[in-house]
């Protein structure tokens, strides 16, 4: 299995995103080429540019829906395709921290929560699947993420219990990696949805937010709510509280394993 992780917005008090999001797109490795081929065909048929990249910050904006009918058609076709692809999507929606997050040698909580869901998905498979985790190389190599990933799997109790995740993450170029492009677009939709409080109702007469609401519904169809072996909820879309940005440490400087009060995202 392959698990592609990307984000929209940064968990920083001065970032413009009030609801930064981390997303993982999971798919069977033997379906990877099929999925890449479907996206390739979409680009070829609609924009005649097979090398273009699906990027939320370029496509998911009001200008696309007001002035660029060809881009809007592409976005609509993209999410129509997502509806039927053999993928699973998990997301952690964060609250923008009010103060700076202390630098840490440990894996950020939002990534730990995504790994929980990835491992449960692989464990529920009828086959003995291992999962390779792939990050967008543009942002993921910062802050020693590879070292933190390995340390989490080997030095924390929780990480050692995740028997389905391989110990070496990969950092890939989003331009040529369909899984990262899907994760990027999904993260963008989920962030915009929650920043505009669309779970409380769509603004009447706003075609952009109406489209975001529809796309969010499509993404929710591709997720799966789970439970840990201990019975803790693992909602497919999880709203992480602001306090979880600040990592608690035990006296021996290992991360404490605190089960979150699971709050599903609407």
What would you note in describing this structure?
The chain has 10 helices and 8 strands. The two termini are 27 Å apart. The strands form 2 sheets. The protein has a 6-stranded mixed sheet, with helices on both faces. A two-stranded antiparallel sheet has the order 6-7. It is globular and about 50 Å long. α9 (178-195) crosses α10 (207-221). It has helices at residues 32-46, 56-59, 62-67, 69-82, 109-123, 137-140, 145-155, 157-161, 178-195, 207-221; strands at 2-8, 21-27, 87-94, 132-136, 170-172, 226-227, 233-234, 237-240. With 266 residues, it is of the alpha/beta class.
CATH domain class name:
Alpha Beta
Helix content: 40-55%
| Number of helical segments with 4 or more residues | 10
Give unreliable regions as ranges.
249-261
Largest sheet: 6 strands, mixed
The total strand number stands at 8
CATH topology: Nucleotidyltransferase, domain 5
Strand order of the largest sheet: 5-4-1-2-3-8
Mean pLDDT: 85
The geometry reads as globular
Distance between the termini: 27 Å
Order of helix and strand elements from N to C terminus: EEHHHHEHEHHHEHHEEE
- The CATH architecture designation is 2-Layer Sandwich
Indicate the radius of gyration in whole angstroms: 18 Å
Structural class: alpha/beta
> In terms of quaternary structure, what is this?
single chain
Strand content: 5-15%
Q: How many structural domains in the coordinates? A: 1
Fold blueprint:
Blueprint: E1 2-8, E2 21-27, H1 32-46, H2 56-59, H3 62-67, H4 69-82, E3 87-94, H5 109-123, E4 132-136, H6 137-140, H7 145-155, H8 157-161, E5 170-172, H9 178-195, H10 207-221, E6 226-227, E7 233-234, E8 237-240
Parallel strand pairs: 1-4, 3-8, 4-5
Antiparallel strand pairs: 1-2, 2-3, 6-7
Helix pairs in contact: 1-4, 9-10
């Amino acid at each position: 299995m392959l698990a592609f992780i990307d984000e929209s917005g940064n968990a920083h008090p001065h970032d413009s995103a009030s609801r930064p999001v981390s997303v993982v797109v999971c798919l069977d490795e033997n379906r990877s080429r099929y999925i890449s081929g479907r996206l390739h065909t979409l680009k070829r048929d609609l924009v005649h540019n097979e090398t273009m990249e699906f990027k939320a910050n370029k496509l998911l904006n009001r200008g696309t829906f007001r002035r660029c009918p060809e881009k809007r058609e592409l976005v609509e076709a993209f999410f129509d395709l997502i509806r039927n692809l053999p993928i699973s999507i998990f997301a952690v929606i964060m609250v923008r921290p009010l103060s700076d997050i202390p630098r840490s040698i440990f894996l950020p909580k939002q990534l730990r929560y995504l790994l929980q869901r990835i491992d449960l998905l692989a464990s529920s498979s009828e086959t003995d699947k291992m999962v390779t985790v792939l990050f967008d190389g543009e942002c993921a190599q910062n802050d020693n993420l590879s070292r933190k990933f390995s340390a989490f799997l080997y030095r924390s109790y929780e990480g050692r219990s995740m028997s389905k995740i391989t110990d070496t993450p990969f950092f890939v170029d989003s331009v040529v990696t369909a899984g990262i492009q899907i994760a990027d677009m999904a993260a963008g939709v989920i962030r915009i949805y929650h920043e505009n409080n669309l779970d409380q109702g769509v603004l009447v007469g706003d075609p952009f937010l109406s489209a975001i609401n529809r796309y969010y519904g499509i993404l929710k169809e591709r997720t799966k709510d789970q439970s840990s072996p201990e019975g803790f909820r693992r909602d497919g879309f999880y709203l992480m509280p602001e306090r979880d940005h600040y990592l608690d440490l035990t006296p021996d400087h290992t991360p404490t394993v605190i089960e979150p009060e699971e709050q599903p995202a609407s």
